[in-house]
Records
---
Amino acid sequence: MPAPESLFDKLWNSHVVQAQSESTPAIIYIDLHLVHEVTSPQGFDLLREKGIGVRRPDRTLATLDHSTPTLPADGHGNRPYYTEQAKRQVQTLRDNCREFGIELHDWDSPYRGIVHVMGPEMGATQPGMTIVCGDSHTSTHGAFGALAFGIGTTEVGHVLARQCLLQSKPKSMRINVEGRLPEGVTAKDLALNIIRYLGMNGGTGFVIEYAGEAVRSLDMEGRMTLCNLTIEAGARAGMIAPDETTINYLRGRERAPHGEAFDRAAEQWLQLASDLGADFDSEITLEASAMRPSITYGTDPGMSVDIGEAVPRADSLSHQKALKYMGFQGGQQVNDRKVDVVFVGSCTNGRLTDLRAAADVLRGRNIAGHVRMLVVPGSESVRRQAESEGLHETFTAAGAEWRLPGCSMCLAMNGDLVAAGETAVSTSNRNFEGRQGSGSRTMLASPETAAASAVLGRVASVSDLEPMEAG
Amino acid sequence: MKAITKLTGPILVLEQENIDTDQIIPARFLTATDFDGIGDHLFADWRFDSKGEPKPGHVLNEARAVESPILVAGHNFGCGSSREHAPHALLGFGFRVVISSQIADIFRSNSQNVGLLPVVLEADQHATLMQMDGEEITVDLEACKVIVSTADGAEHRWPFSIDPFARHCLMRGLDRLEFLNQAEDAITAYEESR
């Protein structure tokens, strides 16, 4: 009998081109390389410098997302780029993709979107793959039972050139989440609870597999939210074994296999699950039923509380600094916090189910007069579907702005900014100092919580809202 | 990439824990298509006010900051975004080594790829260094040792571990791509075997 293997072992072992030795790391083959405008230009420069081409343009897929404006073009087709440099960066990716024969989803593509929303939607992301991108939230794709992680620009150049990466095998951790999440508690809340438990660096050096009933019960969008946030606990990759939910999501998607080939692939995908008795360097079990809608109050994603709780009193210098930056006093109720900006979007929570959840809260309600709310779909596909369901009208009727797809206010490099001192409840992934603009204060939460907070103009969960009258 | 073997110089201490790459280089400086001049924006929101004027009194604005080749930072340095701009900004500013008691995974590999040496020390050694702002130490990559003379006159030689291949490349200023290039036959064989 072969030794039992984990999902991660199977993914790793099947992609070793050259084994790790005492003096050299393993060479790992990369099945899918996702590319965007910000972290790729110097990677392409490396190719030109060395006089080599892209080894596998067919395994490379590019999009525009980080630097792109979310307001529409003017009558002459000019897009309102934040800076000339941002516009040049987009043009540079366009030029590079043309020169090296890479498929780019530009403004005219019906698929263009945030790289981690677009890949899965197209069916390009598949179980059993190794997937990399010059972006730390590449962990998102692990939701499909893929080994997916963020890389730096030098490594982008390596993958473009050789379709491989030099890697030492990380340690493995399994997080079992037993029981069911209570009604109203989302994948985002689950992720925030896990990061609160591990701390923002508790996953450093590990790849995490999520398992257990609460994880199995999530839809693919929820699984993507959970895996997306793995890097916020310091682990480069998070993953979930493929099952019927995974297969049903992928069936019929453009890049996925079709017909009999799909059935054959699906059969193989189901074999990827960790074997009984597989070994992990660390294993943790958490109980889902105790989890509640949560929100961050500090400047790292590990600093969160249940909505309705008080902000903890500072127990260290860095905690004290975080509270000061956020304008919180230890012991203060998190619900008392006035909210200036609400952002629904990002690779964490910019998918159709996220927008539906926010729209369900806002339908028939108005956002508070002092709140500015941006709803930014994760991709053109999400935008089209949302508009066909009339979600955009729900948002605008409530007083929110409906924008074009992109990373937008998550990292605020496209001009969608939160002003200094303002508090934003955001469905994104990082609450670091200045993340949404210099001096901005970010509180991370689910789309439901973001929408409820927009309505009341202060931090609130859906259960804090007055029930809507029937009829 | 510039080789690094052994380096002696004063350390600059940033006490804060969990310094993320958004602090090291804020996202608004990521629209450039090269890394030239990126060191000017290192820790921009810490060093400059809203008008772009240097904040007086910030340690990174002191004259000695650019003369310090070794940064000693609080626990869990470099977490967050995978932006390689972060180690490039540190290099551009003048740092060659960053020491902490924990360094985030992606930042660590990015640093090794661009010639910034990441060193992780034991908590008590790190705590000692955190109290030695401005003092001279030696980082010896060949011996994998940090050499520190403390106020009591003792000389400490603290070992640190580093991936042997990363060490090999850092000491010679080698791009790892060369190693991948040499594996071309193995890559082709792998592709054909699937």
Note: Residues 105-114 of chain B form the longest helix (10 residues).
---
Amino acid sequence: MQLRGIQYLFIGIVACLCFSCEDYKDCNSPVATSLGIHFYHLVDGVERDSILPALTMYGIGRSDSLLADTAAVDRLYVPLNPNADSTGFFLQPDSTMAHGDTLTVAYTHSLQFVSSGCGFTTFYDIDTVYYTTHYIDSIAVPTKKIITTNATNLKIYY
Amino acid sequence: MPRILKYTINPALLAVLLCITLACVTTPSRAQYRSDRKYGFRIGFDLSRIPVHYLNPYRTDLEIQTDLRVDSDFYVAFDGGWNKTHLENKPVFEYNSNGYFVKAGVDYNLLKRKYPGEANMLYVGFRYGIARMRRNIPEYQISDPYWGNVDGHFSSKTLLPQWGELIVGLKAEVLNNLFLGWSLHLRILTTQNIDKQVRPYLIPGFGKATKNSVFDVNYSISYRIPLFHPKPKKKKPEPEKKASVKTAKKAAGQKEEAPQKKATH
């Protein structure tokens, strides 16, 4: 009986130690969340990947800091403004084009505690997407919740 | 055994192996020993919270576990406790919370008794828990190189998270009425959207709340207070029954005489 008790004690302590270890004040993984945008074009109603040849994109109010500078991209991950309930972007698919489109994403946001080291990050839940249609045909929102850095939240069809 | 422990790192696997071993070793029929009379109220203390505090100094937990045997293998259980959490990594954030919890449920003993008074247990159980906690975030900062860093704070808020809990565990009576035991717990939050602004990092009695379900190990020491020992009632002999006994004896005597008569013939 006593031997069995000691056995339980030992296994219990080992289990506790294994399950309870935790890093403190280390932040080794990315914690920021991003709005994932994937560009498509529609051919006879069928979506196909679309590489925009020279996309220029910036956040409205931050025209001095470009998110895409005449870059050939088919997808982009951009930050939403955690201090506001909506974020506007300007998109020009090709620098040779005269105009661009504006895209405004309205959302609710909340803080999520990541770890002792990383602190908090912001999770978003997309409410509505507003956009102009100079070049954009339509926009779909396949994933409303923004909790990672690599999901496709918006599909923009040109 | 030491060799097994050396190469088997996963404690969950160890637990499963130990459970299987105990289940296999105990062979006598339970029905033979259902009438043991060691009932009582057991009160215990979760020792595992002590190393948890030293490994994770930001949290301090206390858990008291009680149970009351109500049937041969059924126990009604009530647990309660307290937690205080203080996380600080300035200027990234500071987080404080404290609160208490209560849990109620049942345990069922699966172990077949080797001898009538055996009180060792291999049990499965269920609990429903509720915590009342207060969380406070005096300051936080989120780094955002594009839109600018976010600085802010959240004032104190009271939360009432609830959860369900499945338990598998062992309790061994190492001394008379003194038990050591450990248990594996799967807890699943039933409260959705505990706090829309900031999800609490740690819920008293539940553990880390960054996910809706958590796995935990408890190691407890407990003492059974033998409050009552239900004994079979001694029935006083009644006149009517005496008569019936006499009649039965008479009948038995007649039956005994009958073969003698036969033998004389």
Note: The first helix of chain B runs from residue 2 to 7.
---
Amino acid sequence: MLLNQFLILGAFLFAVGVYGVLARRNGVMVLMSIELMLNAVNINLVVFGVQHGVVSGQVFALFVIAVAAAEVGVGLAIVLLLYRNRTSIDVEDFDLMRG
Amino acid sequence: MLENAFIIPLIPAISFVVILFFGKRFIGAGRVHVVGITALGLVWVLSAVAAFQWTQRVEDPPPGAIVQLEAHVDEHGDQRADEHGDDHANDHAALSQDHSKDGHGGGHSSPLIRPVISTFSQWWSNGGVEFAVGTLVDGQTVLLLIVVASISLLVHIYSSEYVKGDRRYVHYYAFLSLFTAAMLFFVMAQNIIQLIVGWELVGVCSFVLIGHWWEEKPNTDAALKAFLTNRVGDIGLIVGMIVLWGTFRTFDIDAINTLISADPAAHHFALLVAACCLMAAVASKSGQFPLHTWLPDAMAGPTPVSALIHAATMVVAGVYMIARLYPVFYEGFSIGSSSINLMAFIGGFTALIGAALAFAQWDIKKVLAYSTVSQLGYMVMALGVGAWTAAIFHLFTHAFFKACLFLGAGSVSHAAHHTFDMRKMGGLKKDMPHTYRTFVISALALAGIFPFAGFWSKDEILLGSLVGQENSYPLMLIFGCAVALMTAAYMTRVIWYTFHGEFRGEGHPHESPKVMTVPLWILAGMAVVAGAFNLPSPVLEPFGLEGLAHRIQTYAEPSVYLSGLGLSHPDPSLAMALVGSALAISGILVTYLYYWRGMGPHGMTQRNRYAKNGYTFLENKYYLDHLYNDVVVETVKRPIANWANRFNQNVLDGAVNAAGETARDTGRWIYKWIDQGAIDGSVHAAARGADSSGEGLRAIQSGKVQNYGQLLFGSAAVLAIVFVIVV
């Protein structure tokens, strides 16, 4: 069934995103991995919307894309400022909150 | 006024409160005497009104005021209720006639007038016994009211000069007022509980005023001595009152007296016990042997206080109490049928030793104090031989002339640099004419020289001892005659040393101001005329004034109680009067020759060993003080102290130590096991738990975003797996 393949695709993308978030040390790559996870969720929303014959799934997906654009903007700004201050965007270097 | 007599003691009581609490601030410390004198003036007027009303009551008794003797004997229980009939005018006449037959013809016999008794309210009740409060006013009461009010008023006036500028002027006047209130309360006590209250109140005022100048140790010692000696007697007072209550089941003085006079022999033994106990109280309060030693020491107080409290009024409280509860003593000591009894002996012996001691004193106030002891002994002796009227009459006259003597001594001291030592006086006659004259008049009255007041009252006492009741009292007569002689002699000695000869003091003595001499003259006037209140009828017959004879006997004697006892009055005797006068005059004469003319064995006390020993014996006041302090107090004090010490060391300290050790051990155990173990342990454990868990959790908080992410996703994955498995 088509639904399963989309769900598997979403899960794969999400898993790739998680891996990216947890494993990549480059801040920009972490942000990109978050985008992957968001888009995995978008696929799921659209697929379930089609499955149930309602449009709200696609509406939610559009909202997620719009918010994700804003989020990326803020995230990239943070990365830029980090670089300016510490000349590094390696997330391993930022542990000021260590207990 | 007779029904509302309670107002009389209330006025000085209010004055006390006003002076003590508002005196300094609102009236001014130097002006508080105005309050006291005003209050006492009011008291005097009211007392005079009460006295007048009482005489009216006796002369013209209202219906219901007369007690019928037969009814009295037969149905004493409830005769009061049904005696309000109108037919008493006839009974009265019949009764007076009956009575004049009984009374040996000596006295003016009077109808039996019931005292005015007002019971205001129940004070409190306990176990069915009711304690009432009220007043009992009869002739005896109004007589004392007049005496107390007069002397107190004069002393108040006199004191405004004598203690002027004293640092405790306000307190002085406050307690003078309180004393007056207490004494007035005492004399109109309706029941024996009130008697005790008044008795103790005057005692405490005496204590306060003796110790008025408490900065000096002898004064506080004297105050304490007076107080403690009186405590000894107070035990007798309380025990005696309890015996009376136990016998008659009532506190009411009227009821007790009525019950005894109705049936005198019924409770003889109980009355003997009560009378002996009360005699101890009298001995302490009225300065009777062997408890008289406090009275001379009480002279440490201000002189007006000595005049008021320790001569004229408070010390006669004991005499007054005997007179008030006379049936108890009369029956208890069998005064009617014996020829010697405890009370008469104590009184007579006290009179004798007091008079003897007065010779060996150099302090003028102490001479007067021993004279007071002696005269109080006279009164007690008179009561002891059954001469009720003579005792009260002597109380009356003595109050005036003894107060005058004390105030005169105060005036002398006021003029002569505040000394009371007669060796530093002498020759004051010309400098202090008023004091001298009043002093001599009063001394003559005290010595019993015709026609001064003391002559009449002393004569009655001697006569009472001579005649007695059923038997004569020969020993008392001898005592009385000896004292009459000695009194005249020692008073002459005082006058010689104080007013005659050369002045031996320092400075220039001067007469006291009018505010002091006027009271002296009033008292001296009373010392002259007070005897007129109880003149025997033979004296008045030539003038056709028999109606004025025996006024005190007529008005003051509570014949309503005494007639039931069969008390009789002796006939006046010219021979006895002559013997008494001869003794007094010879006493004066011998002393006059000894001092003024230098005759007689001068310096005998230096030459003769026996005379010297006798003098030393007197000078040391029979060693009674040594006996009390060194022997009685020491023997009692030392074992008690030792025993108390041992008890303290062994029992009390042991208990305290044991308690301390137990407490310490308990404390240690609690510290070790509860505080350190349980409480601190749990606190520590909590802290350690927080610490270690914090250490453990610290590893998680790496500050690295990706570690958090790992935990987040790991946890989510675990939850997802759990979710898949469970659902």
Note: The two ends of chain A are 50 Å apart (CA to CA).
---
Amino acid sequence: MNFEELENLIKENLKDATVEISDLTGTGDHLGLSITSNEFKGKNLLAQHRMVMDILKEELKDRLHAVKLKTQTYEQG
Amino acid sequence: MSNPFNIVGQETSEKGRPYEENSEGLGAKERIEKMIASTPIFLFMKGVPDFPQCGFSANVIAILNSLDIKYSSFDVLSDMDIRQGIKDFSNWPTIPQLYVNGEFIGGCDIITEMYQKGELQSLLAK
């Protein structure tokens, strides 16, 4: 899917997010997503990934086969 | 192209064995509960430990095999009920999914990060 579209979708849900997207396989459906946001603060890794997976839920059914996820807060970044 | 999701670089397994199921008449949820209760470490994956069918599953297998543990696995490609059922069960949209003592731990990225930080090793050593 379109990277810009994806970035906007994430930022609609995590207002302060910085998003880096990379295409891992050259096919546009296996993406690397690195997201920095303070909304992750105080949450464990599974909870942080759940927040992102929730945002991507519809996309993962169809347009995205898989994402490689990295989440952190600005303090960790 | 080498597998970008495999951080260990080892792909075959002696420690993981496919779960042998005997669950006639049970629904997907009951079957899953029975599976994850059957052994401390259980992986839902695509393919089997000796022949993973997806780069993410292969990476988790490689990590598990690098540790001194035994685990069971279930191939979701062999069963559409479980393939969807496990996503509903954990409310998690992707496979692989690792369960330890009946609790969902995470998918490929979480397992990788926990492994790199040494957290997976201490969790599984308990």
Note: The longest strand of chain B covers residues 41-45.
